[in-house]
Amino acid sequence: MLRQYELVERVKEYDPDADEALLNRAYVYTVQKHGTQKRASGDPYFSHPVEVAGLMTDLQLDQETIVTALLHDTVEDTLATIEDVEENFGEEVARLVDGVTKLSKIEAMPENERAAENLRKFLLAMSEDIRVLLVKLGDRLHNMRTLHFIKSPEKRRRIARETMDIYAPLAERVGMYEYMREMQLLAFEQLEPEAYRTITGRLEQIRRQGGGQVDAIALTIKQALAEAGLQVEVSGREKHPYSIWRKMAERHLPFDQVSDIMAFRVICESEADCYAALGVLHTTWQFIPGKFKDYISTPKTNGYRSIHTSLIYENSMRVEVQIRTRAMHRTNEFGLAAHWAYKQGDRPDGQVGWLRDLIEIVDASHDAEELLEHTRMAIYQDRIFAFTPKGALFQLPIGATAVDFAFAVHTDLGAQTVGAKINGRHMPLRTRLENGDVVEIIKGKNAEPQLSWLGFVVTGKARAAVRRAVRLKERAEVAEIGSKLFDEIVARVPAKIGKKAIRDAVARLELEDEEDLMYAIGSAKLDDREVMEALVPGCTAEMAEDGTWPTRERVISIRGLTPGVGFHLATCCHPIPGDRIVGLRKPGEGVEVHAIDCFELASGIDADWLDLSWGRRSVGAVGRLRVTLYDRPGTLADMAAIFAQNLANVVALDQVQRDSPFQTYELDLEVQDLAHLTRILSALRASDAVAQAERI
Fold first, then answer.
1. Contact criterion met (CB below 8 Å) for 694 and 685
2. Residues 396-431: tens digit of each pLDDT
3. Which residues form a coiled coil (predicted)?
C-alpha cells in the first residue's frame, strides 16, 4: 500500500504545482472515515482507495481526480455525506465522488433491474465528466485484483461477469487496453477456471520449450529494420489467454490450431517510419492477406492508432506485428486517460461521440432489459468504417445496415429514412454495410421508424430509437381508440360531462392526465363501469338497481390507425376492408380485430367486445387464399401473372400438398379491400391453370 508521502511525491513528479495540503487532507480523511473497516483480504479498508489513487497517478491525472479516488467509497461505506465532501474538498470533487459512488442501496430491485439502474446513473454521471469513468475503472481493476479473497464462489462469479460484460468493454471503448486486458484475464479466471488453467499451462509449456523464442524473433525483427536504417524498439509477448480462448470458441479450434499466439510491437520515431517499417516487414516476410489493418490513417472511435499486420515467420509460424509511434503507444495503452495529464491543462468535456450515443440509449430505453441489451450492443462488437457522400467517417459494428448508419449520423435522420444509396446504387435498407462503403440516406418529410426495422438493425442506438418511436405511436393510436370509446361511454352517463368532470375523473383514477385516461380505456386497463363511476360517482349503482346496464350503440371506426400498432388483425381469419368486423379488447393486449364469421371468436367470449368498422376509404390488409393448381409446367407462373395483373403483392407462399395431378398452395396476399380480393378470386377461378381457389 502507498504511504501518504509516497502518493504525494508521485503526484508532484508530474505536477509540481499540485496542492500538497489538499492531497494530505484527503488521505487522512479516508483513513479516518474508514477507520477499522477491513477488506476480505484482512487489509485495512482504506488500502483500497489509496491503491486506486495510485492507479490514477500512473495515468498522471489531475489532483481533483486523485482526491476523488481517495474519497470514492466514503459516502457509501462510512457516515460521510456528499455535503461533508463538498465542505472539505470543494464542489468539483463532491460532484466527481457522487458520480463514482456505487449505487448498491438499490437492493430491493431484481438483479437485472439493479444492474440496469446502476448503469443508467453511472452513464449519466460520466457523460458530465469522463473522469468519473476513469476512477470507476481504477476502482473495478483493484477490486478484481483482490477478488480471490472473497469466499463465496457465486459472488466472485457475479462480480467477474459484471466486469466482463460492462467494465472491460467500457475500458476498451475509451482505449484503456491495459485495464481491459487485465480485467478480462482476472474475470476469465473466475468464469472459466478450467479453460484458464489449461491455456495458461500450455503457454507456460511453450515458453519452456521455446527457450527464449519470443526474444529471438523480436531481435530478428529489430535487426531487419535496423539494416533499413530505422531506429525502433521491438518487444514481444504471447497472446492474452482470454483472447486465445475467445478465438478458440469463435472458430471452434483446439489450442494447437490457434496459429498467431505470438504478438510483437514495433515502436517507431514518426508516422513515416511506421509505414517504412511496414514495407520492410512485408518485403522480408510474407504477410497474410486479410490480416492487415491501418488504424493510423483511420483511427478507432476511442482514438486507437496503430498498423496491424500478420506475417508468416520461419517454419510457417504466424506472428502478429503492431507498428506505432511512442505517442500513439501511450494513447493506445491508456486511451482517453492519456489526454488528461495535468501538464496539458485540459479539462474534460466527456462528450465523445460514442458516449453521446450511450446517453441517447439511456433516454430511449423503456426498461431494464432494453437498457442492458442496447448498452451492451453499443460497447461491444468489432467495427467497420462507412462514409457519407461528403467523406465524413462513421464507425459501426459488423453487420450494421443502412438504417444503423442513418441513426449513427443523427437520430432525426434515422427517423426520417425511406431509402438508401450504397456506393451510388439504390439498395434495400436491410443491406449489410461493408468496410469503405459510401452511404447516402434518402429521407422523407413525413416518414417515421418502422417496427419491421427491429428485424435487422444491430446498433443499440438504432434499436432504442425505433422501439421508442413505435411505443409512442402505439400509445397515441391506442389513446385514439380510447377517446372514441370514451365518447361512447359519456353518452351513457346520466349527466353532461365537461372538462372539469374529466379532470376530476383523472384525479380519482390516480392518472397523470387526460391522454393517460384515454390510453387506459383503449388498452382495457379500465372498464366502462370504472370510467363512469369516476366521471359521476354513484351513477353505476343506480343503473344496477333497475337491473339494466347501458350497452354500446355506436360503431367504433379504426380508419387512420395502423395495423400492428393501434390494433392487431387476427391471423385466424385475416380480415380485410369490406369484411364485417368486431374487436376483442383484452387488458394489456390491445384490440384484436376479427371477421364477424371467424370460428375463433368463441375463444374470446369473456373479452370486451367492440363493434368496429373500417371507416370510409380504409384500404390495405392481407388476405389468405388456398389455391389448387393443375400439376403441370407453367401453372404457377399463370397464377403469379393473375396477381400481377390485379396489382396484388404476394407476402408469403407455402406449398401445403402435392398430389398428382394437383398441387395446393396457401398464400398471403396484400389487397386493397374485399372487392379487390373478390376480383382476384374470380380471375383465379376463370383460369385453366387453377382447379380451385377459396379464401381461408
1. no
2. 888 899 999 999 888 889 989 999 999 888 998 989
3. none
Q: Is the dihedral of CA 16, 21, 26, 31 positive or negative?
A: positive
73-77, 181-185, 256-260, 494-498 — which is least confidently predicted? 256-260
User: What whole-number percentage of the chain has pLDDT above 70?
Assistant: 82
> 188: closest CA among 241, 138, 149?
241
Longest dimension (CA), the chain: 107
Whole-model pTM above 0.70? Answer: no
Distance CA 402, CA 386 (A): 10
Q: Provide the β-strand partners of residue 440.
A: 421
Helix and strand numbers (H, E) in the chain are 28, 20
The C-alpha angle with vertex 40 and arms to 38 and 43, in degrees rounded to 5, equals 45
The closest alpha carbon to 610, from 570, 563, 551, belongs to 551
Partner residues linked to 695 by β-bridges: 625
**Residues contacting 318, CB < 8 A, separation 6+:** 259, 260, 288, 310, 311, 312
| Local structure of 649: helix, strand or coil | strand
DSSP code, position 447: -
DSSP 8-state code for residue 628: E
Q: Which helix (H) or strand (E) holds 20?
A: helix 20-34
β-strands 608-613, 233-238 pairing: unpaired
Partnered with residue 622 across adjacent β-strands are 670
Grid cell of 319 as nine digits: 506472428
- 425/427 Cα distance (integer angstroms): 6
Cβ-proximal residues to 32 (8 Å cutoff; 6+ apart), any chain: none
Active centre residues (catalytic): 76-77
Give long-range contacts, CB 8 A cutoff, 24+ apart: 345-348: 348/129, 348/130, 348/131
* 265, β-bridge pairs: 235, 322
- 3-class secondary structure, 653: strand
Residues 615, 385: Cα–Cα separation, whole Å: 48
What are the distances in angstroms from CA 424 to CA 239, 421, 434, 445, 561?
A: 41, 5, 14, 22, 36
Note whether 486 and 517 are within 8 A (CB): yes
CA contacts within 13 A on the Cβ side of 278 = 19
C-alpha cell recorded at residue 647:
396489382
Q: Which residues lie closer than 8 Å to 455 by C-beta, 6 or more apart?
A: 430
Closest CA to 364 of 414, 432, 425: 414
85 half-sphere exposure, CB direction, 13 A CA radius: 29
Q: Which has the closest alpha carbon to 167: 115, 244, 220, 230?
A: 115
